[in-house]
Amino acid sequence: MMTESPRPALDVALAYHQAWTSHDLDKAMTYIADDVVCDAPAGRLDGAAAYREFMGPFVQILTGSKLIAAFGDHETALVMYDTETMPVKSAPGAECVTVKDGKITYSLFVFDRAPFDAARNRAVESG
Amino acid sequence: MMTESPRPALDVALAYHQAWTSHDLDKAMTYIADDVVCDAPAGRLDGAAAYREFMGPFVQILTGSKLIAAFGDHETALVMYDTETMPVKSAPGAECVTVKDGKITYSLFVFDRAPFDAARNRAVESG
Fold first, then answer.
1. Residues A42-51: pLDDT tens digits?
2. Do B68 and A41 touch (CB under 8 A)?
3. Is 0.90 topped by the overall pTM?
4. Distance (Å) from the C-alpha of residue B111 to the closest C-alpha of chain A?
5. Nearest chain B Cα to A71, which residue?
6. What SS3 state is found at A52?
7. Whether pLDDT at A116 is above 60
8. B61 touches chain A (CB under 8 A)
9. What span, in angstroms and rounded, lies between the C-alpha atoms of A37 and A106?
């Protein structure tokens, strides 16, 4: 008999986090519902394909990460982490996810786009 | 005899949140340690005076807020919320705070500066 976790949403959020910070986007996507809705800084993403298109380029420039805090309960989890990426040395982010049947169905994603915009502008100016 | 809260850091984070989202910066500052360190998107803030200078202008443009999720334990709390401000209609933020003796001693503050930068640029262009 399986023992149910007291915090299934946190378990899923952490497994998802562990996967994408290990550059395993395929595994990360197994925790994302097909009809996921994600409110990201640039706007709303609808569905797993759009979500993957959003995460893919980020995972490619990711050079390191550190989990700062993670809490959750039956349906909701809240995770904060720092990331190190090629253009930006410290880019902390936070995600609040809703989990149903082992998959993330909604995500509110917060991070600061300003340093990424600045890095892009520098690249354009120097390129 | 007082009953100790099982999540004193969460209690402080929520009381602080309630105060500043009610535009009561004086009360909010009673939950901030004199030697607070805050890592905000624009860089590190050292001490309560710098922290207040950072929060003051934001509280002045705040027109609404909604708590999205809040979790915590003995020493750490993680809070996510949405804010409505005069220049930016939806500006979600997240804070991970360390609490000691009833005061926030460290805060990692995440929000997207990009829409605020864009609003400022529009104001400059139209002004």
1. 999 999 999 9
2. no
3. yes
4. 5
5. B71
6. helix
7. yes
8. no
9. 5
